[in-house]
Amino acid sequence: FSSEPTDKTTERNTPSPIDPDAIEVDINFQPDPTDLVLSSVPGGELFNPRKHKFSDEELKPQPMIKKAKKVFVPDEQKDDKYWSRRKKNNLAAKRSRDARRLKENQITVRASFLERENAALRQQVAELRKDCGRCKNIVARYEVKYGPL
């Protein structure tokens, strides 16, 4: 018999919980610098696919919206007000296209990073399962020889 206490109140060395967002998976991910520039807001900091998280709303598929039929405006009705509105609309359309392109580029770079990270994590899970299987095997052999832990 051992002199150690037999009650279940003995202290265990249990690791503290880990914040999943704080874990960085070591993967070889070097995106093309051009892709990063195209995914970054001009004048802002470079897009970081490791840290950026998209909201559910941002990742929802957008509905197909039918374009309105073009209304031909006769030359005699094209006054200063018409041209002012056209110029304003053209700038708004360009801003909208640029914003959509930026978001699509960010999603593409982030998806590429996540695919690599997923592959690395799957490899780690496979190795951990293999280790766990080995440990279970050792414990099972121990328990057969010396009884339950």
From TrEMBL:
It comes from Goodea atripinnis. Its main location: nucleus. Residues 79-142 form the BZIP domain. It comes from the Eukaryota. It is found in: Nucleus. Belongs to the bZIP family. PAR subfamily. Residues 1-11 have a biased composition (Basic and acidic residues). Keywords: DNA-binding, Nucleus, Transcription, Transcription regulation. InterPro entries: bZIP, bZIP_sf, PAR_bZIP. This is BZIP domain-containing protein. The keyword Ribonucleoprotein does not apply. Residues 1-26 are annotated as: Disordered. SUPFAM superfamilies: Leucine zipper domain.
